[in-house]
């Protein structure tokens, strides 16, 4: 352990655990030793000024998750599910999951928009939500007019780690947690899937499920094996449901095409037979047609790959 | 571990992977499907056409290209990389003809392309070509050939193969359906290629492009009408097969 004030020399000075790689880039290796000297050094150099605090405040304000009604442009005073209590909450995260719900569920009934989430982060810069095109990232909430206790969320924007808690609070808040069932649909690239089998025997896209303790129904596909983990907003919602003992199931589709793709969307079809979606889907052939139309209208004309 | 060893092409990971080459193979999967079939007297290349923007000239988006009069190839992956590889291959074909006064064999030009690709996996500052290619043609001895190359620079001869998105599905279909009967005559081989593509193509025959080379004949691209005819025939055969099945069942 070096004493504070001792000169730091060389890349391996002190326990600051910096390492130079083969390419000369300096990489901070994780160090659990936690030296005392480091704290002292930090205090000297990094005292927060008023400017820093102001910047930090502005950034926090910019990154705030706001839930509001698009028609009236007023923000919701309470959390979404407090205002619209539900028994079934279906969340689609990612463009393929969103396309699945759009074609198969939203077309079999009249859905009314009840709210929209506005958030800003490095990957999702939608600030104006009044004129959203279908291709833009968004997060919109609907409920079924004929049965308002069914709420749907179409989320195709990225919710950053620091915003996930806010999102959960603004959506769930202190809503009634009894008699609620949550279904989450999302996609992940198959290269994230860890398995001891040979990857040439994997038939992507394929579906995997992860559920909370209180979810008693059998899921529509096999469960996600260890050591695979779920990331981002789906993980946040599932963890929230596990903590608050809400029965919830996550259907994760591993695919090798992350952009909008017919085969990936169709891989979600087994979920149509689950209890949460059963009553909601009526016309499957028509839905397939609508899905095909969605594909052609949303096809990004990228000429990079042929 | 991958994140430390996947930045430079010239660095092996501790367990022997060249991650950039493996990532290049992922780029290939982003291209639409291409299938190649070697028949007895014909070689067939079928591709899934990319849908073209309204204002874009369709002729400029081509997945099947002739390298010489008797050799052609289809690719999947990065368009720009394919253009560079095709240009080099075409120049090599002519250069070979001028030097040794004989047209290239299919194997020679495949080896040339594969060597070119391998060079780019061993040079610093360059990245591998992000394409896989299916090269078909007839040699002077009249034997049909089909080769496949991938970003690592390996090449193999195949009886039938597929590259690009959903290549696995198509390959499995071919493994089940590539029989001596299926390639008995030219028409059957063409039908097999179309049937293989219909397994994965998103909107039927309209999105299929087909090219054939017959012995001692130049490359022939099928028109949309001809492909539609074949697709209707295939659908008729399917219906008849299903009727037979249901009759047998009752």
TrEMBL record, chain A:
<dbReference type="GO" id="GO:0005829">
    <property type="term" value="C:cytosol"/>
</dbReference>
<dbReference type="GO" id="GO:0021930">
    <property type="term" value="P:cerebellar granule cell precursor proliferation"/>
</dbReference>
<dbReference type="GO" id="GO:0080129">
    <property type="term" value="P:proteasome core complex assembly"/>
</dbReference>
<comment type="similarity">
    <text>Belongs to the PSMG1 family.</text>
</comment>
<dbReference type="GO" id="GO:0101031">
    <property type="term" value="C:protein folding chaperone complex"/>
</dbReference>
<dbReference type="GO" id="GO:0070628">
    <property type="term" value="F:proteasome binding"/>
</dbReference>
<dbReference type="GO" id="GO:0005794">
    <property type="term" value="C:Golgi apparatus"/>
</dbReference>
<dbReference type="GO" id="GO:0000502">
    <property type="term" value="C:proteasome complex"/>
</dbReference>
<comment type="subunit">
    <text>Forms a heterodimer with psmg2.</text>
</comment>
<comment type="function">
    <text>Chaperone protein which promotes assembly of the 20S proteasome as part of a heterodimer with PSMG2. The PSMG1-PSMG2 heterodimer binds to the PSMA5 and PSMA7 proteasome subunits, promotes assembly of the proteasome alpha subunits into the heteroheptameric alpha ring and prevents alpha ring dimerization.</text>
</comment>
<keyword id="KW-0647">Proteasome</keyword>
<comment type="function">
    <text>Chaperone protein which promotes assembly of the 20S proteasome as part of a heterodimer with psmg2.</text>
</comment>
<dbReference type="GO" id="GO:0005654">
    <property type="term" value="C:nucleoplasm"/>
</dbReference>
<keyword id="KW-0963">Cytoplasm</keyword>
<feature type="region of interest" description="Disordered">
    <location>
        <begin position="32"/>
        <end position="55"/>
    </location>
</feature>
<dbReference type="GO" id="GO:0051131">
    <property type="term" value="P:chaperone-mediated protein complex assembly"/>
</dbReference>
<keyword id="KW-0143">Chaperone</keyword>
<comment type="subunit">
    <text>Forms a heterodimer with PSMG2. The PSMG1-PSMG2 heterodimer interacts directly with the PSMA5 and PSMA7 proteasome alpha subunits.</text>
</comment>
<dbReference type="Pfam" id="PF16094">
    <property type="entry name" value="PAC1"/>
</dbReference>
<dbReference type="GO" id="GO:0060090">
    <property type="term" value="F:molecular adaptor activity"/>
</dbReference>
<keyword id="KW-0256">Endoplasmic reticulum</keyword>
<feature type="compositionally biased region" description="Basic and acidic residues">
    <location>
        <begin position="44"/>
        <end position="55"/>
    </location>
</feature>
UniProtKB/TrEMBL annotation, chain B:
<dbReference type="InterPro" id="IPR029055">
    <property type="entry name" value="Ntn_hydrolases_N"/>
</dbReference>
<dbReference type="GO" id="GO:0060631">
    <property type="term" value="P:regulation of meiosis I"/>
</dbReference>
<protein>
    <recommendedName>
        <fullName>Proteasome subunit alpha type</fullName>
    </recommendedName>
</protein>
<dbReference type="GO" id="GO:0010498">
    <property type="term" value="P:proteasomal protein catabolic process"/>
</dbReference>
<dbReference type="InterPro" id="IPR001353">
    <property type="entry name" value="Proteasome_sua/b"/>
</dbReference>
<feature type="domain" description="Proteasome alpha-type subunits">
    <location>
        <begin position="5"/>
        <end position="27"/>
    </location>
</feature>
<dbReference type="GO" id="GO:1990111">
    <property type="term" value="C:spermatoproteasome complex"/>
</dbReference>
<dbReference type="Pfam" id="PF10584">
    <property type="entry name" value="Proteasome_A_N"/>
</dbReference>
<dbReference type="GO" id="GO:0006511">
    <property type="term" value="P:ubiquitin-dependent protein catabolic process"/>
</dbReference>
<dbReference type="GO" id="GO:0005829">
    <property type="term" value="C:cytosol"/>
</dbReference>
<dbReference type="InterPro" id="IPR000426">
    <property type="entry name" value="Proteasome_asu_N"/>
</dbReference>
<comment type="similarity">
    <text>Belongs to the peptidase T1A family.</text>
</comment>
<dbReference type="GO" id="GO:0005634">
    <property type="term" value="C:nucleus"/>
</dbReference>
<dbReference type="Pfam" id="PF00227">
    <property type="entry name" value="Proteasome"/>
</dbReference>
<keyword id="KW-0175">Coiled coil</keyword>
<dbReference type="InterPro" id="IPR050115">
    <property type="entry name" value="Proteasome_alpha"/>
</dbReference>
<dbReference type="InterPro" id="IPR023332">
    <property type="entry name" value="Proteasome_alpha-type"/>
</dbReference>
<feature type="coiled-coil region">
    <location>
        <begin position="222"/>
        <end position="249"/>
    </location>
</feature>
<keyword id="KW-0647">Proteasome</keyword>
<keyword id="KW-0539">Nucleus</keyword>
<comment type="subunit">
    <text>The 26S proteasome consists of a 20S proteasome core and two 19S regulatory subunits.</text>
</comment>
<dbReference type="GO" id="GO:0051321">
    <property type="term" value="P:meiotic cell cycle"/>
</dbReference>
């Amino acid at each position: 352990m070096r004493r504070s004030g001792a000169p730091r020399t060389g890349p391996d000075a002190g326990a600051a655990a910096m390492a130079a790689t083969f390419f000369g880039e300096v990489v901070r290796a994780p160090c659990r030793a936690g030296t005392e000297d480091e704290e002292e050094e930090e205090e000297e150099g990094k005292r927060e000024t008023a400017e820093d605090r102001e910047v930090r405040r502005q950034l926090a304000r910019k990154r705030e998750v706001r839930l509001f009604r698009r028609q009236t442009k007023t923000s919701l005073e309470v959390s979404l599910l407090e205002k619209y209590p539900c028994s079934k909450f279906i969340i689609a995260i990612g463009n393929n999951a969103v396309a699945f719900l759009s074609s198969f569920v939203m077309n079999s009934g009249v859905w009314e928009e009840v709210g929209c989430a506005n958030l800003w982060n490095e990957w999702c810069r939608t600030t104006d939500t009044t004129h959203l095109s279908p291709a833009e990232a968004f997060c919109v909430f609907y409920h079924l007019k004929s049965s308002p206790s069914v709420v749907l969320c179409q989320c195709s924007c990225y919710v950053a780690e620091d915003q996930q808690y806010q999102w959960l609070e603004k959506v769930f808040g202190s809503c009634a947690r009894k008699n609620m069932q949550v279904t989450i649909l999302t996609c992940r690239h198959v290269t994230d899937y860890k398995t001891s089998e040979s990857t040439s025997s994997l038939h992507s896209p394929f579906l995997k499920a992860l559920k909370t303790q209180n979810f008693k129904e059998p899921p529509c596909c096999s469960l996600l094996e260890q050591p695979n983990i779920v990331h981002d907003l789906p993980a946040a919602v599932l963890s929230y449901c596990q903590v608050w003992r809400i029965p919830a199931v996550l259907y994760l589709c591993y695919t090798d095409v992350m952009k909008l793709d017919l085969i990936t969307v169709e891989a979600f079809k087994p979920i149509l037979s689950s209890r949460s979606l059963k009553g909601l889907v009526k016309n499957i052939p028509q839905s397939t047609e609508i899905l095909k139309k969605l594909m052609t209208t949303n096809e990004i004309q990228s000429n990079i790959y042929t | 571990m991958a994140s430390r060893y996947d930045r430079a092409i010239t660095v092996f990971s501790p367990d022997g992977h060249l991650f950039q080459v493996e990532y290049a193979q992922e780029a290939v999967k982003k291209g639409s499907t291409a299938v190649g079939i070697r028949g007895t007297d014909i070689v067939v290349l079928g591709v899934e056409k990319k849908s073209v923007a309204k204002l874009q000239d369709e002729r400029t988006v081509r997945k099947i290209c002739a390298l010489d009069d008797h050799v052609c190839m289809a690719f999947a992956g990065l368009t720009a990389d394919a253009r560079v590889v095709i240009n080099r291959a075409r120049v090599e074909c002519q250069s070979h003809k001028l030097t040794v006064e004989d047209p290239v064999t299919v194997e020679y030009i495949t080896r040339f392309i594969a060597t070119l690709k391998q060079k780019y996996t061993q040079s610093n500052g360059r990245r591998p070509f992000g394409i896989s290619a299916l090269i078909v043609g007839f040699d002077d001895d009249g034997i049909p050939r089909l080769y496949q190359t991938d970003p690592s620079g390996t090449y193999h001869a195949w009886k039938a193969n597929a590259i690009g998105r959903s290549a696995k599905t198509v390959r499995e279909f071919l493994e089940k359906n590539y029989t001596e009967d299926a390639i008995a005559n030219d028409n059957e081989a063409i039908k097999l290629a179309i049937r293989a593509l219909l397994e994965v193509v998103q909107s039927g025959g309209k999105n299929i492009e087909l090219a054939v080379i017959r012995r001692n004949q130049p490359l022939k691209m099928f028109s949309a009408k001809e492909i539609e005819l074949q697709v209707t025939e295939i659908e008729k055969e399917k219906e008849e097969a299903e009727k037979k099945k249901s009759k047998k069942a009752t």
